[in-house]
Amino acid sequence: MANKWLEKLIKETIEKARFVFCFTCIAKEFEEERGQHAKVAIGRNKDIQANVDFGEEKVDKIIQEDTKTKHTSFFGFCPGCIWRYKRGKKLEKDTVEIKRQIESGKKFENVKPPCRLQDVERYSNYISFKSRESEYKKLLHALKDDNNYIIGLQGMGGTGKTRLVNEVGKELKESGQFAHVIYTTVSFTSDIKKIQDDIAGPLGLKWEDYSESDRPKRLWSRLTNGEKILLILDDVRDQEPLLDFDAIGIPNWEYHKDCRVLVTTRSKQMFNKVNMDKTIELKLLSEEDTWIMFQSYADIINSSSNNVIVKGRKIAKECKGLPVAIAVIAHSLKGQQHHVDEWDVTLKSWKKPVSMQS
């Protein structure tokens, strides 16, 4: 019983003392919370002044009162135990008031943090190839160059454009080069609304109370508000009508500020049709890197039989350096090291000519 009573006493003492020594910390918590809500409001293009300032007057009054008391109490030090207790009780009341201001739902409803989609993430099974180092570095350098706005990456279907841009985008995000790295697939449909939604989600934009004609203006405004944003438009096709940046809300070169656009395409003709500042061609994998990727996906290890390794190399060679072909075929053979007939069937089927058309 004595131990329980002592524990209770200590707990109550610590609780009371916390309000004496942590008042400044709690006030700082309010400032940080207010700043966070302000950032969210900026992201949503809101007029935040009324929302942010609503509690300043009341909280500042509390803080100023605390400061005055410190000045009249020998620079914040007061020897009176009774005074300390009363002050602690007062601080407790003030703390509740500050937190009430912070947590007031009605007052902060216009700057409530929206549910955001995630920015681009790294592929967990991404493999770095020697034959890709040059393109990777070129792409990274081009996106870091403030003189470039639209950068194009061209390569055949299945060459690994999507994985490469995701990897580069992830590095740029992690290094702090861009606040947001946003990915959207364009493909054949060129669905403007879908593209707008893909971009708006990670930025916290909401379309409520906005007409279809207002969407491009709202998105344009968000993309030019000063944050460094990288948009990755994947698989843009050379077809009529061409992808309309204005209809989406993507700013033009003159007004893009810190926004940047990375376009991947299968067609070199896109380089001429879209005014790109920098273009990079992604070639097929080298024979060495093809085998490295094949081994990884087929789970071939050094202890595998020579027969499997020989057949595996032949099958890998027939994939013609196309990462998508290597991934599909090698994965289908995973766990089949003891079924050589499966490898024979695969090799025979791949002996037929592989189309290199996009």
TrEMBL record:
The keyword ATP-binding is annotated on this UniProt entry: yes
* Residue ranges annotated for the NB-ARC domain, each copy included: 135-298
Keyword flag Nucleotide-binding: yes
Name of this protein: CC-NBS-LRR resistance protein
Coiled coil segments of this chain: none
What Gene3D superfamilies is this protein classified in?
Answer: Helical domain of apoptotic protease-activating factors (1.10.8.430), P-loop containing nucleotide triphosphate hydrolases (3.40.50.300)
InterPro entries registered for this protein in UniProt: Apaf_helical, NB-ARC, P-loop_NTPase, Plant_NBS-LRR
Which Pfam families does the record match to this protein? NB-ARC
List the Gene Ontology MF annotations in alphabetical order: ADP binding; ATP binding
Q: Which keywords fit this entry according to its UniProt record?
A: ATP-binding, Nucleotide-binding, Plant defense
Q: Which GO terms describe its biological process?
A: defense response
